[in-house]
Sequence to fold (263 residues):
Amino acid sequence: MNDVVSVIIPALPPRIDRGWLKTAIDSITAQQKVAVDFQIIVGIEPDSARPQLPQIDHCVEATTQAHKVNLAAERAEGRYLAILHDDDLWHPAFLNCALEALENVDFVSSNSVEVDEVGGVVDITDFPCPSGWLTTREIFREVGPFDPTYRIHCDTEWLGRLGLTPSVKSRAHLVEAQAPQPMIRVGNEWHYNQITNRPSMRMLLNHARPEPRIIHTNYPVPLVTRRLHNDGILKREESELKWQVEGNWEYSRMTQRYNRVPW
Fold:
């Protein structure tokens, strides 16, 4: 019998209407070379219609991302647990690479390529966004649920608690084949590469706990694609004062608790 990966998708009605939820789910079922089954759990708005997609196993109702993830995690039955945002996509090789990495560590993340609404490449970021996470259901529950008092950065705060969880001894971060090496050789000695052309990787190495092992895949692109669009939370935080204020307050809370903004 195959192991099961429970995939949690917190969804919003506009993205369901645009067909983005369907394409996200299609990217799950298109995963290559994986001998696993999927349990797909979608978090929807209260009283909204259940998406008519046959791959969905369960729907839970909640108003915030944190509550959607938490309720879905309670329904998860798989050995492994992953999160995929409704506006993101997995590369067909993502799960194969992540499962292989998870054989030797407790938590896996991936970098991502950011694209605009028409698919144009904007940037590559090494922030370990939830759509690139894979861990065991046991580890997820040991770290605990998302903190719903964080409306914008509940995933970042969760990473802070990941680093404080005693059973989490190691983690890995997947990057594309051409990504910089975090260590460089000078003569007979190895030194940290300052990675001046990839500041987000430097941030990851400085802020993630435990320090992640960087794993270069065989693929020329990151294994997660993130859409940047006007109703995305990051865009709203950039453009709307009330979201900027709340985001800064959440960063301040995390800095007080973890002495950094966790990655």
About this structure: The domain at 3-229 is CATH 3.90.550.10 (Spore Coat Polysaccharide Biosynthesis Protein SpsA; Chain A).
